[in-house]
Amino acid sequence: MSSRDLILARVRRALADVPQDDTPYDQAFARPYLREHGHRSVAETVDLLAENLADYRALVHRCAAGELAATIARLLAERGSAAVCVPTGLDPAWLAATDVTQVPDSAANTPDELDRVDSVVTACAVAIAETGTIVLDGSRDQGRRRITLVPDHHICVVRVPDQVVSSVPRGLERVDPARPLTWISGPSATSDIELDRVEGVHGPRTLEVVLVSAE
């Protein structure tokens, strides 16, 4: 008997006296979890997001929609980026103010090609204020997961207030669990046993978040 057969046999024995019409597990217990913690205005929620992003060492910028292209161009110029990876569904107007070489997201991109790209610009699916977390879901304006993991510099645009929620439960309501979700809390970092922090180990060394408002 294999380990799998042994485990399944034990499960069957454990369920032997459970009636066929027994209440399903996911309905058996009430789970009245808090959906939000406290009461905040929209402005306070956005401020909390900015504060927690900065606490994770992300660089946070704010601008109006009409200033977005100039803001992205300035960030790429300050980084000295010569090439930027671009999701196929990204609004072309976002990069209209820069002449940096654009590398379209493609299944044909190799890791070596992406490693030679200086920056990547994406949108996001949702941003969670209480945890300072940006969620990507692989939509056309965000691209494949690898384009946000290999380049060393990620500029992520968050539409304020539409894409900002207060808590993780609220964020989960916005995303499809069947999609390839990437949850980002600050730039990639790790620490050894002596707590020496190293950034850029398994993702971008620098994360810049642009909170863009409609006004």
TrEMBL record:
Gene3D superfamilies linked: NagB/RpiA/CoA transferase-like
Pfam families reported for this sequence: LUD_dom
Domain LUD: 49-212
Organism of origin: Streptomyces dioscori
Protein name as it appears in the record: Lactate utilization protein C
Domain of life, source organism: Bacteria
PANTHER family reported for this sequence: LACTATE UTILIZATION PROTEIN C
InterPro entries assigned to the protein according to its UniProt record, in alphabetical order: FTHF_cligase-like_sf, LUD_dom, NagB/RpiA_transferase-like
Source organism phylogeny: Bacteria, Bacillati, Actinomycetota, Actinomycetes, Kitasatosporales
